[in-house]
Amino acid sequence: MFGRPLLACLHAVSLLGATAVLVQAASAEPSVHVVHTQAMPPNPQPPDFVIEVAVQAAADQLGVTADNLVVVASEQRDWPDTSLGCPQPGRAYAQIVTPGYLITIDTADGATEVQVHTNPDASVSAIC
To answer: Is the dihedral of CA 127, 111, 72, 108 positive or negative?
Structure first.
């Protein structure tokens, strides 16, 4: 009608800060067009309250006070399911990628290391 191919938006998705729109001309193969990008921070650190929950979980696990622990590393993680990478036998977990954090904590003397897995708001944490 206007001399241009008819385009239809079939699906829009957002991945890693970029929004991609799948479009298809009336008689062409589908194509993907990135319409917006946003830089993701490289390995963002967890909020302080997430660290506090992880340190307390480690203290409870080790039977020590939080004052005797040192956070040695923390990183953002996408866990493969809601078990946060620590599935328990006999339990079922939603099979959905679950964002969160991996926080590595050592005792002050360096003798014992614990890795605490959390979801984004630390309402769920696990030690494998």
So the answer is: positive
Burial (0-12, 13-18, 19+ Cβ within 10 Å), 90: exposed
- 22 domain residue, yes or no: yes
Q: How many CB atoms lie within 10 A of CB 16?
A: 8
Q: Range of 19's domain?
A: 7-37
pTM as predicted: 0.66
**What tens digit of pLDDT does each residue of 9-49 get?**
444 443 434 344 444 445 555 554 443 333 335 558 899 99
- Please give the structure tokens belonging to residue 75: 């990183």
DSSP-derived letter for residue 94 is -
